[in-house]
Here is the input.
Amino acid sequence: MTADSEAPAPATTSDTPQAPGSLDAKEGRAQGTLVSGTFWISLSEGATALLGVLTSVVAARLVPPSQFGMMAVVTLAIAVLETFTTSGFDEALVQRRGNIDEFLDSVWSWNVLRGLLFVLVLAAAGPILARVYDEPALAWVTLAAAPYAILQGLRNVGTVAYQRDLHFRRIFAMNVAQAGLTLLIYLPAVIWLRDVRALIVGYLATALAGVLVSYAAHPFRPRFRPSLSKLRELVRFGKWVTGMSVVGFVVTRGDDLFISKYLGLTALAYYQLAYSLSNLPATHVTHVLARASFPAYSRLQHDPAAMRSTFVDVSRATVLLSAPLAVLLWCIAPELVTHVLGPRWQPVAPLIRILVLAGFLRSFAALAGYYFYAAGRPDLNFRMNLPRLFVTVILIWPLSAAYGMKGACWTIVLAIASGLPIWFSGMRRLAQITVGEVLRHHMLALLASGLLAAILLPTRPLFAGLGGPIGALAWLVLGLLAWVGALLLLGRLTPWSVATEFQRLRAAARKKATDAAL
Here is the structure.
């Protein structure tokens, strides 16, 4: 892709004199841009999720689950290395007030050195993994996938400015370009190779596309100039991100590690596919919007009222999108597996239905994480996830022993739910948002989701006579049309209107932008 012709606005240093009203203008722009930017982020994630699902479906049709399991072990090994060396420097750059240009070369140099170290460690770890899992092929698979680490380190760190300065259209363009390039490389490899080699190609293609797009999208050209003094300035904030990364690994990937050894590589493939599909709303809506909100919150950190207002608008918009998506996935899980993934993935259907609940809870919890970061309280995000760690460690073995993969899935649901008390406590302390307010703000999303379930679940048997994918498609299309009609009727007969809510959010964004201009 070609670089955007408009250069990113330079960040002002904290000691630069401000014109009267200029700080308020920045606040208004931050709030307005964030709320209106949810469109671009949603569009971006919708496009990339669609491309990702397409490649996953084609790969699931052609590549045996055991091959997916082998690749999952390698990605898990890389995740371990990434977790215990996470610096939090990117988050520190976004949160930092003032000019960040002087830090970029040092952060990029750190990333490159880290990537080179990963390659060496992975080369040595391959034979060990082969022995641990009694799978000789893991030695060469690990070595073949190792370049992923250095490619990740080479990405242009200058693109962090787009997140920091709320350039959502550029983030959209970058995400879609990266997904498109990956698809162009991955799909032919899957169709031609049909084994773990294709999965390796896709994995490396994702990292390579990220490197190419990052340099095409941003004019900054990093140089290898590591500076310990610059990195030390970022470590104070980043240490909590590092701690959160370690806890996060246990609560998000510890289950993978346990399943890979206790239930086997094929079970790991089933579990990971179920997790990725069931968490689409969390991964491709809420988490991305929450991360995009981080720079806006950071700009407003001196104004708690403005931060609170922005959080409420963003959370209402994101839950209104993610909750119905979660219900939709729960309803269509059996048809999705039978008619799209294929018969050899049948064990995935009940896992999707359990993990959809985990995905919705995860998407809700994610709303507060970056708010805590921006408010200068990354420790609250760490503490919110600490109970998840204990619940995962304590319950995953007994529940997996008793109920197999379903037990592992229920462990994740309970673990995520265990962190919600800290969510409410932290938001009440920092934003004065109570449990009652949360329910009130998200009542429309709950009503819309309940309507969708009430329409889809009872009507499925009516289309059983059609059989096959045609019956499933007719049920889904007509059900969604009926749901849209029910939402319109709800909006006319009651104060609960989805259309009015989105219009309100757009009007709020325009007002904040107009106030900023004045």
Notes: The chain is about 80% helix and 0% strand.
